[in-house]
């Protein structure tokens, strides 16, 4: 048990910032309002579109998505109008809010409002969706999961935040796009920010080659860990540990080979420790991210 606790402590220590890193944009977007085409709501409109961006200057790969929070201050008089997408630096998108209360393509959805001062915090650990049935006419500040109406239109990106964030490089431009699908009640983003709490990232200088003897060929990984061993050995064992320090996989390798692969398809997305044991001696720990 002492060994496992030590591994867990090492895992946390190697992957953490000492304090949170926050990047924000407090310049409001212009109000966006839909133009009527066939009707005043949903697919009957030409949506108003506004965009804002945050540049993250640090490098790193997301290891623990529960330590990343996106805060939004939105001003909108009609929830059923609003769609909010976040675009990562690699161009992939997640929809955090989508026409709440709208159940049909031309439906107007909920008539409740967003207030810019009521900050909506989105995190992959949050389970509460925005409650359009509450008595208050204005959605309160709080911690929310992505929240979507049931109407098929518009198309959106309904992935969960955990899988969306895990393994992504954070360096570059993060964009927010605000769409308004209702005539007469404009939408704008007053402010937004991204916070990376300690332990969120595997830093870029912690990936790749880990010693002269053993190297990981790619990181993050999908289905297979690809490893290369430079020097001869009599016995080589690879042990994989989860963040709690529990060993979840152990592979014995033949000494006639130099290149190895380990099947990790059954592992959940996240960060893991790989410890090579070469001829009975533990080698430098390798951290990897399973996408």
From TrEMBL:
Pfam families: Por_Secre_tail (PF18962)
This protein's record includes keyword Signal: yes
InterPro entries linked to this entry: Galactose-bd-like_sf, Secre_tail
Keyword Acyltransferase: no
Superkingdom of source: Bacteria
Keywords, alphabetical: Signal
Signal sequence, start to end: 1-20
Domain Secretion system C-terminal sorting: from-to ranges: 219-289
NCBIfam families in the record: Por_Secre_tail
Protein name per the record: Por secretion system C-terminal sorting domain
Species name: Kaistella antarctica
């Amino acid at each position: 048990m002492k060994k496992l606790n030590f591994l867990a402590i090492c895992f946390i220590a190697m992957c953490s910032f000492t304090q949170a890193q926050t990047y924000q944009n407090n310049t409001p977007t212009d109000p966006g309002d839909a133009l009527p085409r066939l009707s005043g709501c949903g697919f009957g409109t030409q949506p108003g579109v506004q965009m804002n961006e945050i540049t993250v200057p640090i490098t790193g790969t997301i290891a623990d998505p529960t330590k990343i929070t996106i805060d939004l201050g939105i001003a909108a008089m009609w929830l059923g109008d609003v769609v909010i997408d976040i675009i990562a630096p690699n161009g992939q998108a997640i929809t955090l809010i989508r026409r709440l209360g709208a159940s049909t393509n031309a439906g107007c959805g909920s008539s409740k409002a967003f207030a810019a001062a009521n900050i909506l915090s989105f995190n992959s650990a949050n389970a509460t969706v925005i409650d359009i049935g509450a008595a208050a006419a204005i959605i309160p500040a709080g911690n929310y999961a992505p929240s979507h109406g049931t109407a098929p239109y518009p198309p959106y990106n309904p992935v969960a935040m955990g899988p969306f964030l895990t393994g992504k490089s954070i360096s570059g431009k993060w964009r927010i796009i605000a769409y308004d699908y209702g005539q007469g009640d404009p939408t704008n983003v007053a402010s937004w920010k991204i916070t990376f709490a300690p332990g969120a990232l595997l830093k870029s200088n912690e990936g790749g080659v880990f010693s002269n003897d053993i190297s990981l060929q790619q990181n993050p990984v999908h289905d297979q860990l690809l490893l290369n061993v430079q020097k001869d050995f009599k016995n080589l064992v690879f042990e994989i540990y989860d963040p709690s320090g529990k060993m979840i996989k152990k592979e014995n390798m033949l000494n006639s080979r130099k290149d190895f692969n380990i099947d990790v398809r059954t592992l959940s997305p996240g960060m893991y420790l790989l410890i090579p044991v070469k001829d009975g001696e533990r080698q430098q720990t390798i951290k990897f991210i399973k996408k």
